[in-house]
Amino acid sequence: MNKKFYFSIILIFISAFGAIAQINVDSSTSFKYLKGKDASSLPANWMTSDYTPTGWSVGTMPFRYGLVGTGGTLLSDMQNSYSTIYLSSTFNAQNIASLKDVVFSVAFDDGFVIWINGEEAFSINAPVDKTYNSFATGSGEPGVTKTYQLPAHDISLKEGENLIAIQGFNTSLSSSDFYFDLKINAALPPPQTTDTVKVVFNKPNGFYTAPFDLQLDVPDPSYTIVYTIDGSNPQSSSTALDGGLSKTITIDPASTTGRAKTPCYIVRASLKKPGLAPSFPLTQTYIFLDQVMNQTSPGGNWPTQGSSVNGQTIDLDMDPDITKSSTYAGQMQGAMTDIPSISVVTELGDLFDPTTGIYVNADDHGESWERFSSVELINPSGTPGFNINAGLRIRGGWSRHENFPKHAFRLFFREEYGAPKLTFPLFETEGVNEFDKIDLRCEQNYSWAHPPGDNQARNTAVREVFSRDTQRDMGEPYTRSRYYHLYLNGMYWGLYQTQERAEARFAASYFGGSSEDYDVVKVNAPASSIEATDGNMDSWQKIYNLCTKGFANNADYFALEGKDQNGYPKKGGEIMVNIDNLIDYMQLIFYTGNFDAPVSAFGNNASPNNFYAVDKRDDRSSGFRFFAHDSEHTMMIGNEGPGVGIQENRVTISYPPMTMSDFSKFHPQWLHYKLCANKEYRQRFADRASKNFFNNGVFTPTVLHDRFAKRAAEIS
After folding, report:
1. What is the pLDDT of residues 10-54, one digit of tens each?
2. Nearest Cα to 109, choosing from 165, 65, 169?
3. In this structure, are strands 282-287 and 206-207 parallel, antiparallel, or unpaired?
4. Residue range(s) in the chain whose domain bears CATH number 2.60.120
5. What is the CA radius of gyration of the chain?
6. Under a CB-based contact definition with an 8 Å cutoff, are residues 624 and 633 in contact?
7. Under 8 Å between Cβ of 5 and 177
8. Stretch 344-353: mean pLDDT
9. CATH 2.60.40 domain span(s) along the chain
10. Which residues does 34 contact at the CB level (< 8 Å), separation at least 6?
């Protein structure tokens, strides 16, 4: 592939009522620049105001070499010499508090990072270690402009002068060229109609068997209605319709007037007043199960069955081998109402547009790949669920690959979408009733959605939840789950499960304090290394340092719990690890034969994966606690490489042996392994095993069977 290097920037902030807030950085702007070959001693803070780029060259946009682009600064010596370039300049900004969103329009090949005032604002294909000789982690498409929208409050803008710093990356030294083009635009939003009142629907969302007339009304005559029936957002959609003070809509899933022929009929409606932008939409989904059973490609702007977008497999049709089989046909409609449903609605382009669609660019992460959506919980009994607007992202690791037709989602609840939190007893009395985010997980490996030939028959849809339920029954902290049918823009999307995410906000909800009090260590899957998703890793580093020394000596072992060498609490001592929690977590890993957590057989037992470790930083009485996460590679009977089925031994890993190279790979099983050198720890492990494996403990056969069967019955 020809690589092209071409770099230009225009940042323009435009008000809806005039150029009140404006920034211009264009092709005439001077940038100081430094070639990667001259940057080996560049300090780590080079992108901040603490560093002055003295001795750097000066040039103008575009910075380029290769076959594309003219003018600007030609980097004729880049090929076979250096892979990075550093740029620095300043710009002025005014009225930044009034800005809502910043839109990045980018055409690039290959990678880049942009910092504003020393804080990373945006990156694509950037390596984890951004050194002078780093390479981009992937290739871009210079002829395709992609659009990414970020909330202005997430970008470190300042009133007045701002510093912009950029590092560009090529994929290799021998690359023939490299390309980058960027525009950043932000508009001052017009005042919005209040969200405290909503359009009045005379029929609730839910399940219907025949077409009917739906009436929309305003709450008072000072408002008018604007609405859509194609799933688009009436606040901004070109297909939005004027509903006046009252509007009657025939809800018929067979209709293709103004909509695709989805088996669910979606109405999104906003209120507006003169001079104000429409309010956040209220969305109602009307589900017709007879149409769901016969679901096929709905036409309109939907991709077609069996097609691909950016290589992403598209699978929309219900499988007639199931829906029309003599075994299952009579059970299908009942199965669709045995558990609640969730309907997620967003702009269709936000899912499937080749440039901006999150579903067909599923490998991309971060807030720039979050899209506005509406989310409804629909109970088949008709009891009230919730109806809220949220941010929608793709979640997951390996399952983001394009050959998986089914992806998982994450929902974010923030004030910029309306309500600042989801307030609803999502797990009844079992958990809290306020949420900042929630995961919608689905079966991937071993399911129908996995590429053919990969033992799809092994799917149970229970393994994940079973492991989390087992932590619960041990009396340990755990993340909660429920099963749902998911509808996406009016199409049935399959069986999903909610899951709390064991991060700082979750910890504050259940353990107290604020989210800023917590350190959360997890695995950065693309890098196969650990990271602090909240707080920092200082405490985890202290534990690693103790591991390096070892725990054969009682003084070193008891130090983890703030005790002296005799096991008595020390005044002012710090509990660094909740030992019983660690033991219970490891016994769960061992019993289920989890070969992908917290160390992965897919990484030759040398790489961490799928664990969360949570610590309340300044609370010296608790220590790190560990959470089961992503337990699909568990409880196998037959051989399933790299696992070995019923004979899976994760206690004494030997094929290949478990290794750990450095702190970036440090995980709880390595901590357990090192602790096993201590007699006191081994005795404590045996005591916990006696509790868990005997006398109706969590791993006794009857108790195990009942726990599994209870979840299986929910979805059977």
Report:
1. 444 433 334 444 566 776 778 899 999 999 999 999 999 999 999
2. 169
3. parallel
4. 5-188
5. 28
6. no
7. yes
8. 96
9. 190-292
10. 42, 53, 56, 57, 85, 86
How buried is residue 173: exposed, middle or buried, by Cβ count under 10 Å (0-12/13-18/19+)? middle
What does the mean pLDDT of the chain come to? 91
**Given the DSSP bridges, would you call strands 387-395 and 371-378 parallel, antiparallel or unpaired?**
antiparallel
Give the residue among 186, 70, 180 at the shortest CA–CA distance from 136.
180
More confident residue, 461 or 451: 461
Give pLDDT, residue 23: 62
> Hunting for tokens 């209870």 — which residue is that?
710
Residue-wise DSSP of 37-77? GG-TT--TTTTSTT---TT-EEEESPEEESSS--SSEE-TT
Q: Does the domain at residues 5-188 carry the CATH identifier 3.30.70?
A: no
CA contacts within 13 A on the Cβ side of 97: 1
Q: How far apart are CA 614 and CA 507, in angstroms?
A: 8
Tell me the CATH number of domain 190-292, given options 2.60.40, 1.10.10, 2.30.29, 3.40.50.
Answer: 2.60.40
Is the distance from CB of 598 to CB of 610 less than 8 angstroms? yes
Q: 3-state class of 329 per DSSP?
A: helix
DSSP 8-state code for residue 331: G
pLDDT computed for residue 6 by the predictor? 36
Whole-number pLDDT of residue 670: 98
Nearest CA among 522, 517, 483, 524 for reference residue 502: 522
Question: What are the tens digits of pLDDT across the range 172-183?
Answer: 999 988 888 777
Q: What is the pLDDT of residues 599-624, one digit of tens each?
A: 999 999 999 999 999 999 999 999 99
